[in-house]
Write a structure and sequence with these properties.
The complex is a heterodimer. By secondary structure, chain A is an alpha/beta fold. Helices cover about 40% and strands about 10% of the residues of chain A. Among the domains of chain A are: about 30 residues, RecR Domain 1 (Helicase, Ruva Protein, domain 3, Orthogonal Bundle), CATH 1.10.8.420; about 90 residues, 3-Layer(aba) Sandwich (Dna Topoisomerase Vi A Subunit, Chain: A, domain 2), CATH 3.40.1360.10. In chain A, the strands form two sheets. Chain A has a four-stranded parallel sheet. In chain A, strands 1-2 form a two-stranded antiparallel ribbon. The longest helix of chain B is centred in the C-terminal third of the chain and has 20 residues.
């Protein structure tokens, strides 16, 4: 019991009290549900690998997106983590390939270019069939720093490097929008 | 009478970490209370009224509410965004270096308005000239001063004799400069050239604008950088993590200058 609490306590956002609650919940679960949970954890650790192309998490490499012949192989979208791929796929507006960095450059946390999947990205970009890279890191300070680093080091003069538009979110409010976002929204205004 | 539940403050945002489903745990340095850690409820949602106002290296005015374990940010409005600084990778990295040092030296519930002013002045100087390293040297030197750790630059810290215009030695462990006659058993002891001593004295009595006008040759700049960053690291008691990325960017830009000159 103490071991289970200790292991649950390691999970992000789970404090000692929550760990105890979850442990008691697991003890009260029917055997098959508890074993299914244990099996799922074991299976995910044994079967999930990085896709050799895009570095996304997958159970077969290359992943479903990279091996789909209908995807546009000339455009590559760089995202911070696998959840961003799911968010982009939900839009159904992007038909190119992805590259997952698994983090951003975060100098204060000691995360530099070598700790994320940048080497793999730059090696992919040497292929001439890629003509555009969309840098879709989050519009945070560290996301922007990572985007600037990528632009500076991508090493090709003929590659079109773009980033996602900055501006107002749907359902947002001008009154509460910070000046940087509002300025960028104004700069990126579109004809009605 | 119970103290008021809410208060206002102006702060420089130092960093944040995600908390729970959509909250942020924000570390900031306020003018009146020193370092504060507070929660921005829902601040990671794109439609949150806090989003964009809590980015690191931003001066923000906030309304806060005292919580049971941590204060909550109820309103935030950017006062100074340093947007030009944030358009440059070196500028951002230098700004984050300052933030890491203020996080390390700043104390909670202990106002240090001089340190607050020093950080905003230095961010402005970096924004004006992201290439020069002088704002960082000025910051490191005055960080020691406003933290009560100012090194001695005019007398030998061992024998108290006035320093002759000559090369000397320096150790953060004994509190500053040593004459050549004094030989304490100190692992942190290092040589200090007369030129570097003069620059340190100049940093002591000049403002940031004058300091940023200084132009140092490569060897003197390297000596000062090594001396000040070693001293800051000694007092901090741990590695400064943003330093390695900053060094990497500096080395890359020096290589570019070298290859362009060939």
């Amino acid at each position: 019991m103490a071991r289970l609490v200790q292991e649950l306590n390691r999970l992000p956002g789970i404090g000692p009290k929550s760990a105890q609650r979850l442990a008691y919940y697991i003890i009260r679960l029917p055997d098959e549900e508890a074993f299914a949970l244990a099996d799922a954890v074991t299976a995910v650790k044994q079967n999930i690998v990085f896709c050799e192309e895009c570095q996304n998490l997958t159970d077969a490499s290359p992943c479903q997106v990279c091996s789909d012949p209908r995807r546009d192989r000339t455009i590559i979208c760089v995202v911070e983590d696998p959840l961003d791929v799911l968010a982009m796929e939900r839009t159904r507006s992007f038909r190119g390939l992805y590259h997952v960095l698994h983090g951003v450059i975060s100098p204060m946390n000691g995360v530099g270019p070598d700790q994320i999947k940048l080497k793999e990205l730059f090696s992919r970009l040497t292929r001439a069939d890629i003509s555009e890279m969309v840098v879709a890191t989050n519009p945070t300070l560290e996301g922007e720093a990572t985007a600037m680093y990528i632009r500076r080091h991508q090493g090709r003069d003929d590659l079109k490097v773009t980033h996602l538009a900055r501006g107002l979110p749907v359902g947002g409010s001008l009154e509460y929008t910070d000046e940087t976002t509002l300025t960028r929204a104004f700069q990126g205004r579109q004809e009605l | 009478m119970a103290p008021p539940r809410t208060y206002r403050c102006e702060a420089i945002i130092l960093s944040y970490t995600p908390l729970g489903e959509s909250d942020l745990l924000v570390t900031m340095f306020t003018r009146d209370q020193g370092k504060v850690r507070a929660v921005g409820k829902g601040a990671r949602r794109s439609t949150s009224k806090l989003v964009g106002h809590l980015e690191p290296l931003t001066v923000t005015k906030m309304s806060m509410a005292h919580g049971r374990s941590m204060d909550m940010i109820s309103q935030a409005e950017v006062v100074l965004s340093f947007s030009k600084l944030k358009e440059d990778l070196t500028g951002i990295t230098k700004g984050l270096y300052l933030a890491e040092l203020v996080d390390g030296f700043g104390a909670e519930d202990s106002a240090n308005p001089e340190l607050y002013q020093l950080m905003t002045d230095t961010l402005r100087a970096i924004e004006t000239d992201p290439v020069s390293d002088m704002p960082l040297r000025f910051f490191e030197f005055h960080l020691l001063q406003v933290s009560g750790l100012m090194p001695e630059l005019y007398h030998c810290v061992e024998c108290r004799a006035e320093l002759e215009p000559d090369a000397h030695r320096f150790s953060p462990n004994v509190g500053g400069t040593l004459c050549l006659d004094c030989n304490p058993d100190d692992a942190h002891l290092r040589p200090l050239s007369l030129r570097a001593l003069k620059v340190l004295r100049l940093l002591n009595r000049s403002d940031i604008a004058a300091a940023c006008n200084l132009s140092l040759d490569n060897s003197l700049a390297a000596e000062l950088k090594s001396l000040l960053s070693t001293t800051v690291r000694y007092w901090l008691g741990k590695e400064i993590r943003s330093n390695s990325f900053l060094d990497r960017l500096n080395n890359e830009s020096q290589s570019e200058v070298y290859f362009n000159s060939l």
